[in-house]
Amino acid sequence: MSDLNPEQLGAASPLPYAIDPSAEGFTSLATVTYQHMNEQLALGYLKWQVFQREHIDNSQEAITRNAELSLDRAEGDQPRQALVLGAGNCIDIPVEHLASIFDQVTLVDVDPLAMQRGTAQLPKTAQDKVTLLRADVTGVMAGLTDSLQQLAHTHYPNYGRFVESAAQHLATVDPTDAQPDLGESYDFVCSQTTLTQLGMIPSQAFLYGALAEGSYGVVQAASDAQTQPIQEAFDALSAKLQTTHLDYLKKLVSTSGVIHLADYYAEALPDGNFRPIVQKEAGGKLQREFVPLNERREWYWRPTVMKDILVVSNAITPRQA
Length: 321
Ligand SMILES: C[S@@+](CC[C@H](N)C(=O)[O-])C[C@H]1O[C@@H](n2cnc3c(N)ncnc32)[C@H](O)[C@@H]1O
Description:
Elements: E1 17-19, H1 28-47, H2 49-73, E2 81-85, H3 95-101, E3 104-109, H4 112-119, H5 124-127, E4 130-134, H6 141-155, H7 159-172, E5 186-192, H8 197-209, H9 224-252, E6 253-268, E7 274-276, H10 280-289, E8 290-292, E9 297-301, E10 308-318
Parallel strand pairs: 1-4, 2-3, 2-5, 3-4, 5-6
Antiparallel strand pairs: 6-7, 6-10, 8-10, 9-10
This protein binds S-adenosylmethionine (SAM).
The site of S-adenosylmethionine has 25 residues, from helix 1 and helix 8.
């Protein structure tokens, strides 16, 4: 694979995108949070590509292998369809190859600009098969981020009160069956480093991003002890978001279809231990309710020189009752 070209960050020929109702009503804070993260990711890939190459190559190979497996298993003669959740900048997604082997490829993300960047350089033949959809795959992010923003305003400048009320609010959020209806018979469903981001991105926006930038002027009062209640509430919500995401994958895939599920499993710490990133509830559900279709793969994503994240990649199908 040749080096990534910084010039390609510009959108040569951006594809149009549709908007699902789940992505309506996002505050600008929420919208820009996702955009900002994806821009940083894209720049990080370019800047640190010598370290990130292994992750990008492994990701593209695993997705290719699992997509091809789905076509080997496909039944009937209807058009072959692939769905990519959390496609973002598409740097780790082999979109052109997917478009060459499927009849239709639907890319989904909260951030349509990242998907436009990621598909602008595709040849026309590939672009003709690719559809972009702005959607929130949890179905709860617009309401959640709006409520947190309002609570921050209400309690400004009392950070303690904000944390307390935000933690209470987070405990009431129930993503069960809130996900957008994107269909249910995809031959291939790809969830590549998306599961762990569902709770992490809003948590970073409200704990470290918006607040640390001083948008609400309340962060100066924050200490680890003060942020603990909201961190714990975000962890509990992340567990719910991750387990409901697994249920969602089951709904989307056809009976003979294949789910590619790869994610940041754990972060390697300097003391040799690992900090888990996939919540244990999701790990347990994955083992109980899905069957592996080939051997799982593991590699490291090194976003910068001093960080190592263990990535685990699976091809799975729902276990039949
Ligand atoms: C770690 S990134 C994936 C990397 C990406 N493929 C790339 O090339 O940069 C996770 C992606 O999931 C998306 N995402 C996070 N939460 C989402 C949600 N609730 N609905 C849809 N997409 C979401 C983010 O916008 C981001 O593009």
